[in-house]
Predict the 3D structure of the following.
Amino acid sequence: MSSMPDGLDRLDRELSGYRAWPRLDPGPAAMVVSVGVLLLLVAHALPWTGSISGWNVLLGDGQLGILPRLFAITSLLFGVIGSTSAILTRLWAIGWACALGCGFSVVNGLWAVWSRNTAPNGAPGPGIGLILSVLCMALLAMMWVRLAWSRPGGRADG
């Protein structure tokens, strides 16, 4: 009987630790998220407007205003760092943070495209990299909402 309390103590520590946090199982969707992250990184290397790439916008080059830079920051924060963290840890809370953050970033991206479309005469409009980045973020937002919402036990089934 002396081994029983040790076993229960170990079980209690394990259940109250990191491994007991709610998790999600991305399954094949992890590959879609990974491809979305890769395409987002490629889109940041492409021109966002004129010859200015997404990496230049992130660093503040080009004087494009706050909206494209805000989108560059949020897309890398939630699209790349958040998605990578969520896939590696499979934590449900990070999945929801990615879902909400990617959705917020899509709105930022649409504002960034709008800001380039309404730029003064002679200023270049949105480039292929900016458009592709917004589409990648929309894909990631949809995937993360689907993954976070479908966690077993994550919602009441009636």
Q: What stands out?
A: The two ends are 42 Å apart (CA to CA). Residues 99 and 145 are 5 Å apart (CA to CA).
